[in-house]
């Protein structure tokens, strides 16, 4: 296979010579430049050795030795940066990971869509309401959701506000995790109230008890605590969409002699910005982080091969996570040829299923929603197809929240279109609520016997 030639030497701003999709147009470039300069001086959100640790875990997951759970909001909002909401999101991810650990009998790598998921790709640059056309809402790092010209004007200062909230979020998550909040000996610390009133209560408690018993047994027989269980590792991710923001937090680390994007552990490239000759691919080929790449129904064999050759020319383990999001209807047709195309490159990849983005539809009342059954169907098909093709599906990617929202239909409580209006809070894509998220983890644990 030919490697694509790179005429431009890579540096953190080399993407600027390529077409950059999904970027806001700022009225005053000098203000933006000032903000980027300030962000470049501020301390990083994460550090390179954490990124390298995650890369090792992903390499292990590529070999079938671990399983990755990635989840969080479609977009974080600045208003949601509060202790209760962050703790609840962490709790649901921990609970899901416990269920997965129990079902899959493999260490679970936890990656939150958190601490920086503030920029969104949109299908149109503008939005029209009642004959008025304004720039679309591109996420809290860019502009404001209200439908007035002032609120929709891209504001570079928001990048600093987003950086600060990312810092506040990760600071709180680190403190909780380090303080024993996530200790597997004490899952009651991260109990969510709802479990007590949920149809899933008995099944969840059975899993918790069985893990506690297993821990007690191992500790009693080995006469020492299992240290790995005292503390879990937790990583962050967001879509690496806003390239000025990503560039500003990208630093050369002497110790590793490589460039790292220190705004998050694992950025990903969305479907809409994965053009081979585009600015995003140019930016991401130069950093050492593990990188997610979303692959949807329009991804061709040549395209995915070109992406792997450009972004991972040395076939580095742990570097690439291919997040397929085909939709329950398309997956049987689309996934097998993609697996074959990737196999032909020899590049190690972690296969991950995002059963959310290919299954979005509009409810009878006009709200964006997703049906729980379609999500489960896409997951079931993914596990089956990978098994048939001899590849390991080593991760899942969900949009979820630790709260009791009504954005997706179905699940144990059988939410219908009529329930959606009750607690529909997302500004963007519909999320699984805590109960639907936990149920999904249980379905996976059952689906994928070790
Ligand atoms: C997302 O993950 O929120 C998203 C926009 O995904 P995709 O690029 O797969 O459509
Ligand atoms: Mn989304």
TrEMBL record:
**Entry-linked Gene3D superfamilies:** Aldolase class I
The residues that the entry says bind Mn(2+) are: 74, 357, 399, 429
Family note: Belongs to the class-II DAHP synthase family.
A Pfam match is DAHP_synth_2
Write the Enzyme Commission number(s) for this entry: 2.5.1.54
Gene Ontology BP term (one)? aromatic amino acid family biosynthetic process
Recorded protein name is Phospho-2-dehydro-3-deoxyheptonate aldolase
Q: What keywords were assigned to this record?
A: Cadmium, Cobalt, Manganese, Transferase
Q: Does the keyword ATP-binding apply?
A: no
Which cofactors are reported in the record for this sequence?
Mn(2+); Co(2+); Cd(2+)
Provide the top EC class.
Answer: transferase
Positions contributing to phosphoenolpyruvate binding? 113, 294, 325
What reaction gets catalysed by this protein? Answer: D-erythrose 4-phosphate + phosphoenolpyruvate + H2O = 7-phospho-2-dehydro-3-deoxy-D-arabino-heptonate + phosphate
Q: Which domain of life is it from?
A: Bacteria
Q: How is the cofactor bound?
A: Binds 1 divalent cation per subunit. The enzyme is active with manganese, cobalt or cadmium ions.
Q: Which GO terms describe its molecular function?
A: 3-deoxy-7-phosphoheptulonate synthase activity
Give the matching InterPro entries.
Aldolase_TIM, DAHP_synth_2
């Amino acid at each position: 296979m030919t490697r694509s030639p790179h005429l431009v030497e890579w540096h953190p701003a080399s993407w600027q010579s390529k077409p950059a999709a999904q970027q806001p147009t700022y009225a005053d470039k000098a203000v933006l430049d000032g903000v980027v300069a300030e962000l470049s001086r501020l301390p990083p959100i994460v550090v390179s050795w954490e990124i390298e640790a995650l890369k090792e875990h992903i390499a292990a997951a590529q070999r079938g030795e671990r399983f990755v759970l990635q989840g969080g909001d479609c977009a974080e909002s600045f208003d949601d940066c509060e202790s209760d909401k962050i703790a609840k999101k962490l709790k649901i991810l921990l609970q899901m990971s416990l269920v997965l650990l129990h079902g899959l009998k493999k260490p679970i790598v936890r990656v939150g869509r958190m601490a920086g998921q503030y920029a969104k790709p949109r299908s149109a640059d503008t939005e029209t309401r009642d004959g008025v056309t304004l720039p679309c809402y591109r996420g809290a790092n860019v502009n404001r959701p209200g439908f007035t010209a002032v609120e929709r004007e891209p504001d570079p200062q928001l990048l600093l506000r987003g950086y600060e909230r990312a810092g506040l979020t990760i600071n709180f998550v680190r403190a909780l995790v380090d303080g024993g909040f996530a200790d597997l000996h004490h899952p009651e610390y991260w109990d969510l109230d709802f479990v007590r009133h949920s149809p899933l209560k008995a099944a969840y408690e059975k899993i918790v008890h069985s893990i506690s018993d297993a821990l007690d047994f191992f500790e009693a027989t080995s006469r020492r605590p299992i240290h790995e269980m005292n503390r879990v590792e937790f990583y962050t991710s967001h879509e690496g969409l806003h390239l000025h923001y990503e560039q500003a937090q990208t630093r050369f680390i002497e110790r590793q002699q490589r460039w790292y994007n220190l705004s998050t552990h694992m950025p990903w490239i969305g479907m809409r910005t994965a053009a081979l000759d585009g600015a995003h691919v140019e930016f991401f080929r130069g950093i050492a982080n593990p990188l997610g790449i979303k692959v949807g129904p329009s991804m061709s064999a040549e395209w995915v091969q070109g992406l792997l050759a450009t972004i991972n020319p040395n076939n580095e383990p742990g570097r690439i996570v291919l997040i397929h999001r085909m939709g329950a209807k398309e997956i049987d047709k689309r996934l097998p040829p993609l697996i074959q195309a990737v196999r032909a490159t020899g590049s190690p990849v972690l296969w991950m299923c995002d059963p959310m983005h290919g299954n979005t539809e509009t409810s009878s009342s006009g709200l964006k929603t997703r049906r729980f059954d379609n999500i489960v169907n896409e997951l079931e098909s993914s596990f089956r197809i990978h098994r048939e093709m001899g590849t390991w599906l080593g991760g899942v990617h969900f949009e979820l929240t630790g709260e009791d929202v009504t954005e997706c239909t179905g699940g144990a409580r059988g939410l219908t279109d009529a329930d959606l209006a009750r607690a529909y809070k997302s500004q963007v894509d519909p999320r699984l609520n805590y109960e639907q998220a936990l149920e999904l983890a249980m379905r996976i644990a059952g689906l994928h016997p070790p």
